[in-house]
Structure formats: structure tokens, C-alpha cells
Design a protein that fits this description.
Structural class: mainly alpha
Shape: globular
Number of strands: 0
Helix content: over 70%
Order of helices and strands: HHHHHHHHHHHHHHHHH
Distance between the termini: 50 Å
CATH class of the largest domain: Mainly Alpha
Number of domains: 2
CATH topology of the largest domain: Growth Hormone, Chain: A
Radius of gyration: 22 Å
Strand content: under 5%
CATH architecture of the largest domain: Up-down Bundle
């Protein structure tokens, strides 16, 4: 009887929740943002997680897998500002993001169709090219999404909503990763991967569908001086960044670590497939454990940041995250992917929190969008260079040796963190 009452109360609370029955525009927007995030979570555990595994099973080289991460990052460096300038020409940012995102997700469909038309030896290069072209659309969707989020919910509710969104994203990625891993082992290759890509495309299309119903005021179009060239406008736009010392100190203290962090990214899938001969079910389970640990990590490090400070959180989590490539390299069987995934989830979350919050603290008041844009460009440069260096390192040595070197590099590049403020 007591259990029945508790269940009835829980059902009543859920039924009265503003996320189920929103009464205000903000509650309506919050529900749509959660629905849109849930669709992203499914594709994150699908094509995003298994594309590098598919390439590895097709025999892709470390260099090509490095380009899977590096090429989109390189495009993002050059397109971030032009994309933002294009996006801000339109008053209806919801429509801009929804329309362009639909084209971006069509890359998932193309990746699924390519095995019907191309021989296996040509597939890796074509798939990497399709994957890279997504960055063109994302240069517009990212700034428009941020503009919508800024107006969709009140500032005092934004942090709580984002916390729920990230937890939901991780949990759905964990669940879908396990399901897709199981599916891949029960259908013949390469149709199994094509089905995963098609499902990812279908669910991803629901993201812009839900997003299109968000209601925000129209964006005021900026006055553009047509006489000045794009180069001069960009240089003038970023000029304050180079003259603000706290932000430049932040970049100097963290850029080497960002390079080391991205060094082993193209090597993991190759090591799982070629060295450990891991099944897709186990790789999917690895994703489930990693994303579940990510949720726990965000909660733990988020609470610890107020007590320890963000510099200590970043240093401790970064040093522990260096164990991830080390444990992977020393694994004697595919089983060790599971504890390695737990290490990744529990510590990568702390690195995310530390890097992001310290970046915001290094920005001057009211200039966060400008400095965040420059930070994004710098981060993409590291994502571009790091994987290519890792691929070169593995070809000069071996996969396991490159992973061990990456672990040492990640640990050593935490030393400049002493330059970061300790009172944030």
C-alpha cells in the first residue's frame, strides 16, 4: 500500500511538471530543448560513436582516421566567423538553425547510402569527405543555436536546464550505444553499419523538427559596413582579445594540454579493432559505461569545483584522464575497454568543467561571446593538429607506443596550469 501511494504521488508530480504541461513560454521552450537534445543523444550513440569503428573495419589508416577529426576542425577555424556573420543576417534564428541543421544531418543519410554505390577500398576517403562537409553547415547552426538558447530561457534557469540537457544527452547516448553495438553484431557487414546510420539520420531529423517550435523574439540585425573587407572586419572584431592579459594567460596555460588531449583520438578505434579484436557489442557497451560515468563525473566535479576551485578540479581530472590512453595501451584483452571507459567518463567531465569555467572567468564582463568565439577557434586548431600528430606518431612507432606517449604528454602538459587563477 505504501509503495502504491509513493508511485501515485510520483505520477502526479510528473503529470503536474511544467515539462509535461508547460504553462509559460519559457517552460514550452525548455521542453522543446530537452526533446531536441534527446534526439541528438541517439545519433551520438549511433553514427557519431561508430563511424570511426566502421572506418577501422574498412581498413582505414591512422592518418585517415586522424583527418576524420582534424578536417572538420580545420574548416571550423576558417568558417566560424563567416558562418556567424551569415547567421546574424536573419531575424528568425530558430528558422535558420532548423533549416540548416536538416541539411547537416543529410550527411548521415549519404554515409549510409555510399556502401551501395562504392567499393570498400574507396569508402573510407569518401566517408571522411562527407563527414567533413558537415562543418560548413555547423558554422551557421552553432551561432544561431547559441542565440536561440540565450533568449529561450531566463539566465537564472539556464544552468539548471543545461545540466538536465547534458545528463539526458549522456544517458541516451549510453543506451543507444549499447543497442547499436548489439545490433551491429547481429546483422551482416556492412549492412549493419548502414542501418545504424539510417536510424541515426531518422532520429536526428527530429532535432530540427522540435527546435522549430521554440519561440523567441526576432534577432536585431547588426549594421554592417559594406565598405570594409571581411579581413578587416574580423581583425577589428578580435582586436580586444589580444590586449586582455587574463585571457591570453588562459590560452598559454591550456593550449599545449589541448594538443596532447587530442593526440590519441584517432588511435582508440584502431586499437580496439586491430589489436584487441573487440566485438561491436563490447564497443557499444564501452560507450554505455563511458557515458554513464560521464553523468556521475559531471555531478561530482560540478560539486567539487565550489570546494576545491576550478584549477584543482582541472589539474586532478586531467592527470587522471591521462590513465585512459595508458590503460588502453596496456590492455591484454578487449575486456579492459570497460574500466578504461569508466576512467574516461569520470575524468573527461572534470576537464570539460574546468576548461570551460576557467575560460569564462578569464573573459571581461559583457564580452563573453567574442572571447568564447576566439576560444572555439583556438580549440579547433588543437583538434585539427593533435589527431594528425597522433597518427604520425603511431605510424612511426606503433599504436600502443603512441597511446603511451600521449598519456605522458597529457600528464606533462598540466604543469602550465599553475599559471591559471586559483581563486575561481
Amino acid at each position: 500500500m505504501h509503495l502504491r501511494l509513493l508511485m501515485q504521488r510520483a505520477i502526479q508530480q510528473i503529470h503536474r511538471s511544467p515539462l509535461v504541461h508547460p504553462h509559460t513560454r519559457e517552460e514550452h521552450n525548455a521542453r522543446l530543448l530537452l526533446l531536441n537534445t534527446s534526439m541528438i543523444g541517439i545519433s551520438s550513440g549511433g553514427i557519431v560513436a561508430f563511424m570511426p569503428v566502421f572506418l577501422a573495419r574498412l581498413g582505414a589508416s591512422p592518418t585517415l582516421l586522424g583527418w576524420l577529426n582534424s578536417a572538420p576542425a580545420l574548416l571550423a577555424v576558417f568558417l566560424r566567423i563567416p558562418g556567424a556573420m551569415i547567421a546574424e543576417r536573419y531575424a528568425n534564428q530558430v528558422r535558420v538553425r532548423s533549416t540548416v541543421a536538416s541539411f547537416v544531418y543529410s550527411a548521415y543519410l549519404l554515409c549510409g547510402l555510399m556502401p551501395f554505390f562504392l567499393p570498400a577500398q574507396q569508402l573510407p576517403t569518401v566517408l571522411v569527405a562527407i563527414w567533413t562537409l558537415q562543418a560548413v553547415g555547423e558554422s551557421i547552426t552553432v551561432p544561431s543555436w547559441m542565440a536561440v538558447l540565450h533568449q529561450a530561457v531566463l539566465p537564472q534557469h539556464r544552468a539548471q536546464l543545461n545540466g538536465i540537457r547534458w545528463a539526458m544527452l549522456s544517458l541516451l547516448s549510453a543506451a543507444s550505444s549499447a543497442f547499436f553495438g548489439w545490433l551491429l553484431d547481429h546483422i551482416a557487414f556492412p549492412l549493419n553499419y548502414q542501418i545504424v546510420f539510417f536510424i541515426s539520420f531518422a532520429t536526428a531529423l527530429l532535432d530540427p523538427f522540435f527546435f522549430s517550435f521554440i519561440k523567441v523574439p526576432p534577432l536585431e540585425k547588426p549594421v554592417v559596413n559594406a565598405v570594409r573587407g571581411l579581413g578587416k572586419r574580423v581583425a577589428e572584431y578580435f582586436n580586444p582579445v589580444f590586449h586582455y592579459k587574463p585571457f591570453m594567460v588562459y590560452l598559454a596555460a591550456t593550449m599545449l594540454y589541448r594538443l596532447a588531449l587530442n593526440l590519441p583520438s584517432p588511435l582508440f578505434s584502431l586499437f580496439w579493432v586491430n589489436e584487441l579484436h573487440a566485438s561491436d557489442t563490447l564497443i557499444g557497451l564501452r560507450g554505455t559505461i563511458g557515458h554513464a560515468a560521464l553523468v556521475v563525473g559531471y555531478i561530482f566535479w560540478g560539486r567539487s569545483a565550489n570546494r576545491l576551485g576550478h584549477r584543482k578540479v582541472l589539474t586532478l581530472s586531467a592527470l587522471t584522464l591521462a590513465l585512459y590512453p595508458l590503460v588502453t595501451a596496456l590492455s591484454s584483452s578487449a575486456f579492459w575497454l570497460l574500466p578504461a571507459a569508466a576512467i574516461w567518463g569520470l575524468t573527461a567531465s572534470g576537464v570539460d568543467i574546468g576548461l570551460f569555467d576557467l575560460m569564462l572567468a578569464s573573459c571581461p564582463e559583457r564580452r563573453q561571446p567574442l572571447f568564447a568565439a576566439f576560444w572555439s577557434i583556438a580549440a579547433n586548431m588543437a583538434i585539427f593538429i593533435g589527431p594528425l600528430l597522433g597518427a604520425m606518431l603511431s605510424e612511426a612507432t606503433s599504436l600502443s607506443a603512441a597511446l603511451i606517449i600521449a598519456a605522458v604528454a597529457q600528464a606533462l602538459t598540466t604543469i602550465p596550469f599553475v599559471l591559471l587563477p586559483g581563486d575561481v
